[in-house]
Amino acid sequence: MMYEENYYNQDSDLVKINDSSQSNPIIIYAHQLNQYYHTLLGNPFERLKYYDSSIEQYHFYRTPGIINYIITYYLYHGCLLTEIHYPVEILYDELVFFGFNIQIIYDIISNCITIDYYIPSGKLNIILLQI
Question: Which positions fall inside the Potassium channel tetramerisation-type BTB domain (predicted)?
Fold first, then answer.
């Protein structure tokens, strides 16, 4: 008996995302993005606004390299890795653009702590800055 009705082509679930700084796109499964519907990348309808059919990729003209940082939220199950190399103002604008929750933004943009990662439960792994 053939199981064609249960066959799932994972290649059709692949999403290619790029920004102006990369020659190769980031490839991620749509179901990984769609788990976080409240964000721009997690909402298929909002994400579609940035689809370029000529190159078959979602293309964002944003701060160079920021997409590598943003994508960690989806790859690490809602934990945003924050090896921050961007000025606070730029990081804030990017997090707002990509639809992050204001609490996540506040926790990350705090000027007195550096966060290794953000866990949605509100528990933070922090390192105090030596000033």
Answer: 30-103
Model pLDDT for residues 83-109, shown as the tens digit of each residue: 667 777 888 889 899 999 888 778 776
Helix (H, G, I), strand (E, B) or coil at 58: strand
- For 56: left if phi > 0, alpha if psi spans -120 to 50, otherwise beta; the answer is left
pLDDT tens digit sequence for 8-48: 444 468 999 988 777 889 999 999 999 999 999 999 999 99
In CATH terms, the fold of domain 14-118 is: Potassium Channel Kv1.1; Chain A (3.30.710)
CA distance 107 to 33: 22
Enter the pTM of the model: 0.72
Nearest Cα to Cα of residue 84 among 97, 95, 99: 95
* Contact indicator for 45, 39 with CB cutoff of 8 Å: no
